[in-house]
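User: I'm writing a tutorial on reading structure tokens. Could you give me a worked example: one chain, its sequence, then its tokens, then a sentence or two explaining what the tokens reveal?
Assistant: Sure. Here is the example chain.
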Amino acid sequence: MSLMEGSEDTFLELREKFVPTFVRSCIFWLPAQALNFTLVAPRFRVIYMGVCGLIWVNILCWIKRQSLPVATTPHNNVPSSAAIKNTET
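And here are its predicted structure tokens:
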């Protein structure tokens, strides 16, 4: 997606969001599949997985739209006014 969006650093979002997305995937899909094969009747499994897939796509959209953390380092190493006030006290 970063290539299509024309981002300067195409791998920045991947580096920032891959691990949290993978963890959420495991948290979502492992119990979903366990329920699928233990409690859901075979004739309803396709419907159940379709609903799970719809929920998962919405989770992915939410993750995609979260903003990346912004570096809080001031430009040119100029301390902010809050930092100056903290050093004066």
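What the tokens reveal: The radius of gyration is 21 Å. The mean pLDDT is 84.
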